[in-house]
Amino acid sequence: MFEKVREGVGKVIEKITIKELSEKELDGVLWELQLVLLQNDVSLNVAEKISQGLKEKLAGGKVKRFSDVKSIVRVSLRETVLDVLRSGGKIDLVRLLEEKKKAGEPFVIVFLGVNGTGKTTTIAKVTRFLQKKGFSCVLAAADTFRAGSIEQLEKHANALGVKCIKQSYHSDAAAVAWDAVEHAKARHINVVLVDTAGRMQTDKNLMDEMKKIVRVINPDLKVFVGDALTGNDAVEQAEKFNEEVGIDAIILTKVDADVKGGAALSVTYATGKPIMFIGVGQGYDDLTEFDPEWFAERIV
Questions:
Q1: At the topology level of CATH, where does 3-88 sit?
Q2: What CATH number has the domain spanning 93-291+294-298?
Q3: pLDDT tier at 110, thresholds 50, 70, 90
Q4: pTM
Q5: What are the contacts of 20-28 at 24+ separation with CB within 8 A?
Q6: d(CA 217, CA 109)
């Protein structure tokens, strides 16, 4: 994964290491770095921030003549990438769940995003992750819009051994979510995971439905699920959902197939929200907690 951006960044680093590390010499090469980043789905704002951050770390004679220049450039670039990735902070999901569990209340997570990002499968993966941490779960089939969505979630629920709360298609999605929360309260279930209809960020009716779900159940966490392969489209979608509904965290799917890697950098910076998990395969266990250090190592 991330082969293209790693190769492009590597070539730029090689150019930097054979030049004087002065402001004049750096400008041209840093412009090349921006182009590499832009070509790999990094947004313009992030590409400029990374280039400027690297320039500040390297310019002004901070690198001694006989220093290991290549190593210093790589370390500086890695630190700049980490600054971007950490700009959204971090969510300790297990700690939050433990706190709610001690209070005797279910922790409610709503998943949102556009069609085709793998949202329903991601809910199943998160369920498996939580089960392995010792939490009980219930799923809410609040996508009453897309044909087959209820059956898809119910199939995952059966495979994972959890209950799926559902109603008929075209029923009130907020009512389904409410029923799931009440079910969890009555049976002392730790976590409610709410599936919602995939909607384009420009679909006002479905976006209003999303707002109603959030208003009715007041979730503890609103998670945007984005497809890493869509690059800047995922960033634009996340920004719009954050603007309309407010998101707390991000899950990026299909990261194992992403040769560019720019979406992860851009979506955190654009929304100010952390990436919580990344999807790295089709199985229930193919979900990894996002580690900025791991990502930065693979980019640089």
A1: Four Helix Bundle (Hemerythrin (Met), subunit A) (1.20.120)
A2: 3.40.50.300
A3: very high
A4: 0.88
A5: 21/58, 21/59, 21/61, 21/62, 21/63, 21/69, 22/59, 22/61, 23/55, 23/59, 23/60, 26/55, 26/58, 26/59, 27/55
A6: 10
